[in-house]
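Limitations
The structure tokens in this dataset are predictions for the assembled complex, not deposited experimental models. Users should treat interface geometry with appropriate caution, especially where small molecules or nucleic acid strands are included. An illustrative entry is reproduced here so readers can see what is and is not provided.
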Amino acid sequence: MTDTLRVSELFYSIQGESTRAGLPCAFVRLCGCNLRCVYCDSRYTWDEEGRLLRMAEVCSWLERYPGVLAEITGGEPLLQEAVYPLMDALLAQGREVLIETSGSLSIAQVPAAAGVILDIKCPDSGMEERNDWGNIELLRQRKAAGSRDEIKFVLSSEEDAAWAVRIVRQHELNALAPVLFSPVIGKAAPQRLAELILQERLPVRLQLQLHTQIWPGAQRGV
Ligand code: SF4
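Predicted assembly:
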């Protein structure tokens, strides 16, 4: 198995999404994605070559931030096989590790001690048919093993929100993990989304991307 990663960027910032939002976090963003979401804010990762780094080099960069939450993201980080030993190595450093994935690939090999942030792609992303629904059963098994995963819907419209409400209920996702509803800036109005969540009496979290409020307009490194 290779221990080399194609890295788009390494940066230390504030966690802007997930239930850990607001915490300092060391990010490892990997290159490449198998999806093409309409709203993608990291499309520079799609085709860029990035830097080829050995796992030890990535770990050594992370050692500058001892004990800090680490998040591996992309692109789609599960496309690179070295992501698995990287997660093991970071967990062995004794830190909390998150991995954000599009939900189009199986999470079966992700260590139980790492927290998966699993996107479920809504219709307006253009990628709904790429959802790997088998991941829901895997989330169930991971929860039984003590994992602290999360499920995220990125919503572009009220139609997306209505779809997400239906999926949450149909699969009883709240029983598996915290569920995050995150509006696409400039597309889905947070106020409408808040009203819908209250009206539906759904125990999901409305999430506004914190980093876009702290550093508006910043394209990379946040
Ligand atoms: S899965 Fe993520 S990185 Fe890939 S296209 Fe969609 S939003 Fe962009």
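Some entries come with short summary sentences. For this one: The chain has one domain: 4-214.
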